[in-house]
């Protein structure tokens, strides 16, 4: 125990002695958590639209007002020529063109139908799909309003209708940052701990202090624990700061689940992810090598673990890879506990998986670490 305490003192002194690295450990993750949820937002609003109104009727004006008032569209151009509206798409000034033909109101009243042309810039498939969906829904609502006025000119609603009132659980206001903040916090803690732990050991290889440690009677497991525990504590501190300071006071996210359960899972997860950092360091002789390996792994963690999109939407091969990554399970657990208030019965499978990851990654790191004495 005295050997381990000596190693821990040495590690903490080494970490806090480096004035340049302290902001990267404590300030950078908090700044990223403040900014990234605002940028990583899949809510599409202020879609630029050009309206070609060839009818200039009361109905066409009502439709345009309904589009502008929706909050999803921004009227960038208003004219009489479809060719001009199409040129706006080609110059990337607008995303959609809505053409209202001549006699739109007359055909709608006399023949009970009229055509509208919606042209969508589909270079950005997500934005195009959502924009087309928004405008279709608005046109349907407009059509329903018009027909209701025809049935009841006095505004009285005499027909029986089904009153639909949606109830949104866990995120009642459908705020996208509420969904993103827990996942981004997991990604930041993961990158910080694995990255810094890997570089810490490789740095000792480069400066030669690792050779001095290798010839001492320090056991292999003592050396590994001495490297793991400091970053385990730092990971707990950064996660706490992000969850109870930034998430709560900046984004208004109040955890509803059992925090002892969350921190129990976090403790095991940090052991697993630090084991990954240690494993990377055993394969690297320089910090540049460690950074390259860590970069490749972190890119996979960012894009294939359900941080931005559900893994259920991925192809089978990508879904299989996602299930082999520990970050996938922790992102899901944090969202379940913080937003839904899930209990142990809901995440017991996740506990078994992360315990297996902790044993495998640290076992491989200890096995692969070469000690000469």
TrEMBL record:
Annotated compartments: Cell membrane
UniProt keyword annotations, A-Z: Cell membrane, Membrane, Transmembrane, Transmembrane helix, Transport
Gene3D superfamilies named among the record's database cross-references: abc type-2 transporter like domain
Pfam families in alphabetical order: ABC2_membrane_3
Coiled coil start-end: none
Segments crossing the lipid bilayer: 21-40, 179-202, 229-254, 260-280, 292-311, 349-369
Membrane topology according to the record: Multi-pass membrane protein
Residues of the ABC transmembrane type-2 domain: 132-372
InterPro entries: ABC-2_transporter_component, ABC2_TM, ABC2_TM_bact-type
UniProt superkingdom: Bacteria
Family of this protein: Belongs to the ABC-2 integral membrane protein family.
Name of protein: ABC transporter permease
Source species: Sphingobacterium kyonggiense
């Amino acid at each position: 125990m005295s050997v381990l305490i000596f190693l821990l003192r040495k590690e903490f002194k080494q970490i806090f002695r480096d004035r340049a690295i302290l902001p990267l450990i404590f300030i950078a993750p908090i700044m990223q958590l403040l900014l990234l949820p605002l940028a990583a937002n899949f809510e599409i609003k202020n879609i630029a639209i050009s309206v070609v109104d060839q009818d200039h009727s009361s109905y066409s004006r009502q439709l345009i007002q309904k589009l502008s008032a929706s909050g999803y569209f921004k009227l960038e151009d208003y004219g009489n020529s479809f060719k001009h509206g199409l040129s706006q798409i080609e110059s990337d000034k607008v995303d959609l063109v809505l053409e209202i033909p001549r006699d739109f109101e007359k055909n709608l009243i006399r023949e009970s139908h009229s055509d509208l042309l919606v042209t969508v810039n589909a270079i950005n498939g997500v934005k195009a799909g959502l924009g087309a969906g928004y405008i279709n829904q608005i046109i349907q609502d407009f059509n329903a309003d018009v027909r209701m006025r025809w049935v009841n000119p006095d505004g009285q609603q005499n027909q029986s209708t089904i009153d639909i009132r949606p109830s949104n659980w866990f995120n009642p206001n459908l705020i996208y940052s509420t969904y993103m903040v827990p996942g981004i916090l997991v990604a930041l803690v993961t990158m910080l701990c694995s990255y810094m732990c890997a570089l810490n050991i490789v740095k000792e290889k480069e400066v030669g202090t690792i050779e001095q440690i290798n010839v001492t009677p320090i056991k292999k497991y003592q050396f590994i624990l001495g490297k793991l525990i400091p970053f385990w504590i730092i990971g707990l501190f950064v996660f706490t700061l992000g969850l109870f300071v930034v998430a709560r006071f900046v984004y208004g996210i109040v955890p509803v689940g059992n925090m002892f359960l969350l921190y129990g899972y976090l403790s095991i997860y940090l052991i697993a992810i630090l084991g990954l950092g240690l494993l990377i360091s055993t394969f690297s002789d320089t910090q540049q090598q460690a950074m390259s390996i860590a970069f490749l792994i972190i890119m996979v963690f960012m894009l294939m673990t359900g941080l931005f999109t559900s893994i259920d939407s991925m192809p089978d091969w990508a879904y299989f890879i996602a299930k082999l990554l520990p970050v996938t399970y922790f992102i899901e657990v944090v969202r379940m506990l913080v937003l839904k208030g899930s209990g142990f019965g809901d995440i017991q499978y996740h506990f078994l998986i992360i315990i297996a990851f902790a044993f495998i990654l640290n076992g491989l790191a200890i096995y692969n670490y070469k000690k000469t004495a």
